[in-house]
Amino acid sequence: KRKKAKGPAQLSKYFNKDSDASDSSDSGKGPRSAISGKRIKLKLNRNKEEKEMDKKRKEVLEFYNQMYT
């Protein structure tokens, strides 16, 4: 038989920052989702084509900025 707890649950047992139950990749820093509470990944894995597109976009932006000034 389980004994019923007397009084409210101690929340610090479940929300301890040093808990090993959290994700191993989670360092406790960085933004978290307001809905799920999971850590938001800020770095995207990009392939070669996406990196090339970003490079071209940066060059075009620099060109237009030089024309404007």
What distinguishing features does this structure have?
single chain; 69 residues; mainly alpha; 0% strand
What would you say about this model in short?
By secondary structure, this protein is mostly helical. The protein has one helix spanning 48-68. It has a domain at 45-69.
Description:
This protein is mainly alpha-helical and 69 residues long. Helices cover 30% and strands 0% of the residues. It has one helix at residues 48-68. The protein has a domain at 45-69. The mean pLDDT is 80. It is rod-shaped, with a radius of gyration of 24 Å. It contains 1 helix and no strands.
Produce the secondary structure layout.
Layout: H1 48-68
